[in-house]
Amino acid sequence: DAKTTQPPSMDCAEGRAANLPCNHSTISGNEYVYWYRQIHSQGPQYIIHGLKNNETNEMASLIITEDRKSSTLILPHATLRDTAVYYCIASTGNQFYFGTGTSLTVIP
Amino acid sequence: NAGVTQTPKFQVLKTGQSMTLQCAQDMNHEYMSWYRQDPGMGLRLIHYSVGAGITDQGEVPNGYNVSRSTTEDFPLRLLSAAPSQTSVYFCASSYDGQGSGSEKLFFGSGTQLSVL
C-alpha cells in the first residue's frame, strides 16, 4: 500500500475550518484514501474515505486532487473536541498503515 | 451491539511469560486485525485475517501468533513476552477487507501491556 506524508502538527482556532493535508503521490488506482482520528489513547475512529470523488459526511469533507496524489480533510467548524491525531491512509482495504499522523490542536 | 471487545484492559507480565490478548466482535465482520502503538508513534499492524481459517502477517509480526477459528474471535498470543512488547494493543475489524471500499475499521478500546 502507498505511503502517506502528513505534517506532524497543526493548530486551528475554534469555530474555523481545519484543513489537514496529506500527500500520497505513489497511490495506485485501486487504493482508497481513508482518514481516521485518535483522541488521547482511545482506539482510532473512522472519519471518511474516498476513491476519486470528493466526499462529505456528517463529520467532515474529503477533497482528493484529480491526479489522486494528495488529499485534504476538512473539518468545517472545528471544536475543542476535534483535538486529536489525524491519520491519512492509502489502502486497498486489507492492510492499513497508520504512520504518525497530524496532531491537530483546536485553540479556544 | 457491543462492537469490538478487548480483554483484558491492563496486563503486567514478567519477561518470558506467555499470555493471550482476546478480541471479539459481534458485527459479523470478516476482517480482523491487531495493531500495537508505542508512545508517540502511530499504530503498526501485527497480524490480520480476512476470514475464519485465514491469517497473514503485517509490519511487525515477530513474537506474536494468531489464529482465527471463528468469525467472531481473533486472539493474539505472546509466547514468551519481552520488554520490547510493552505497548498498547488495539484490535480492529471491518466488513470484508477485500477492497470493496466498505472497509471502515472499528476499533476496540485497547489493552495496555507492560512486560517487566
Concise account of the structure shown:
The complex is a heterodimer of chains A (108) and B (116). Chain A is an all-beta fold.
Description:
The complex is a heterodimer of chains A (108) and B (116). Chain A contains no helices and nine strands. With 108 residues, chain A is an all-beta fold. In chain A, a hairpin with a 6-residue loop joins strand 3 (32-38) and strand 4 (45-50). The termini of chain A are far apart. By secondary structure, chain B is mostly beta strands. Chain B has no helices and eleven strands. Chain B has strands at residues 4-7, 10-13, 19-25, 31-37, 43-51, 54-57, 64-66, 76-78, 87-94, 106-107, 111-115. In chain B, strands 2, 4, 5, 6, 9, 10 and 11 form a seven-stranded mixed β-sheet that branches. Chain B is globular. The mean pLDDT of chain B is 93. The chains are: A mainly beta (108), B mainly beta (116). At the A-B interface, strand 3, strand 4 and strand 8 of A face strand 4, strand 5, strand 9 and strand 10 of B.
Descriptive terms for the model:
heterodimer; A: 108 residues; mainly beta; four-stranded antiparallel sheet; 46% strand; B: 116 residues; seven-stranded mixed sheet
SSE blueprint:
The complex is a heterodimer of chains A (108) and B (116).
Chain A: E1 9-13, E2 18-23, E3 32-38, E4 45-50, E5 55-56, E6 61-64, E7 70-75, E8 84-91, E9 102-107
Parallel strand pairs in A: 1-9
Antiparallel strand pairs in A: 2-7, 3-4, 3-8, 5-6, 6-7, 8-9
Chain B: E1 4-7, E2 10-13, E3 19-25, E4 31-37, E5 43-51, E6 54-57, E7 64-66, E8 76-78, E9 87-94, E10 106-107, E11 111-115
Q: pLDDT under 50 segments of chain B (min length 5)?
A: none
Shape of chain B: globular
Shape of chain A: globular
Q: Which structural class do you get from the secondary structure elements of chain B?
A: mainly beta
Oligomer: heterodimer
The counted number of beta strands of chain B is 11
The structural class of chain A is mainly beta
Fraction of residues in helix of chain A: under 10%
Quote the distance from N terminus to C terminus of chain B.
36 Å
Radius of gyration of chain A (Å): 13 Å
Strands of the biggest beta sheet of chain A: in what spatial order? Answer: 1-9-8-3-4
Largest interface: A-B, 25 and 33 residues
Please give the share of residues in helix of chain B. under 10%
Strand segment tally of chain A = 9
Number of helices of chain B: 0
Q: What is the averaged pLDDT score of chain B? A: 93
Q: Count the helices of chain A. How many?
A: 0
Strand content of chain A: over 45%
The biggest beta sheet of chain A is recorded as: 5 strands, mixed
What is the typical, i.e. mean, pLDDT of chain A? 93
